[in-house]
Amino acid sequence: YLVMPYMRTDLQKIMGHEFSDEKIQYLVYQMLKGLKYIHSAGIVHRDLKPGNLAVNEDCQLKILDFGLARHADAEMTGYVVTRWYRAPEVILNWMHYNQTVDIWSIGCIMAEMLTGKTLFKGKDYLDQLTQILKVTGHPGEDFLEKLEDKAAKNYIKSLPKMPKKDLSVLFPKANPQAVDLLDKMLQLDVEKRLTATEALAHPYFDQFRDVEEETEAQQSYDDSLEHEKLSIDEWR
Question: According to the UniProt record, what class of enzyme is this (predicted)?
Fold first, then answer.
């Protein structure tokens, strides 16, 4: 038997509630601690959303559902992550996106905690990209040059030029440090987006941060056993 802590609910079920800034700090800090460990093992979760984050009455948080998780160096498809929390590079079908796809998802979840509303609520994958660009602004040529998919590149070029929105206007009641962190997690360019380790060092978490608790895996996750075909006795 595997005995695990009982978590009373998940973030999706309580997303309509009003979160204090302190609770947002504590919950997002735990998300990022979990991601730092997962990423250090060479794993990308790929399906982070409120329903995959279990919480209990003490505000403790656990990351669930690794059904879509993959090694960071594996070739990965674009059809992952619930659309509203999907990073732009996944929508644009970059086959070799990296672990910061999870950081984008955390940014979307954090934004929803701040307002109670989904930040990027696209009707389909093209509309999802449009909703993202309405906030991040139309990317420059340096970003477009990195796109391998010509169809995606042409689609973005066909869109009207949109300026980047000021997140402090979108989140007028939010802690300025929260807004700054969001801006750094919701970067279109994966090379400019924060890693989990960098995000944990952001001043927004100073109240709760304990560096000793921000652990890393001692080695990369070995999934070779998942491909073994053994009998019950052999597994034992």
Answer: transferase
Q: What is the CATH number of the domain that holds 79?
A: 1.10.510.10
pLDDT in tens, 113-142: 999 999 999 888 888 889 999 999 998 888
Residue in 47, 65, 223, 233 annotated catalytic: 47
What's the total number of domains in the chain? 1
Is 142 labeled as catalytic in the residue annotation? Answer: no
State the DSSP H helix or E strand holding residue 234, giving kind and residue range, or none if neither: helix 232-235
CA 177 – CA 215 distance, rounded (Å):
24
In a domain, 3, yes or no: no
169 exposure class (CB count in 10 Å sphere: 0-12, 13-18, 19+): exposed
In a domain, residue 228? The reply is no
Cα–Cα distance for residue pair 157/92, rounded to 1 Å: 13
Q: Which residues form the domain of 78? A: 9-196
pLDDT tens per residue, range 156-166: 888 888 899 99
CA distances from 158 to 70, 138, 201 (A): 33, 11, 38
CB 75 within 8 A of CB 95: yes
C-alpha distances out from residue 56 to 24, 63, 79, 128, Å? 14, 12, 31, 31
Look at residue 109 and give its three-state secondary structure. helix
Give domain status of residue 59, yes or no. yes
Quote the pTM value.
Answer: 0.87
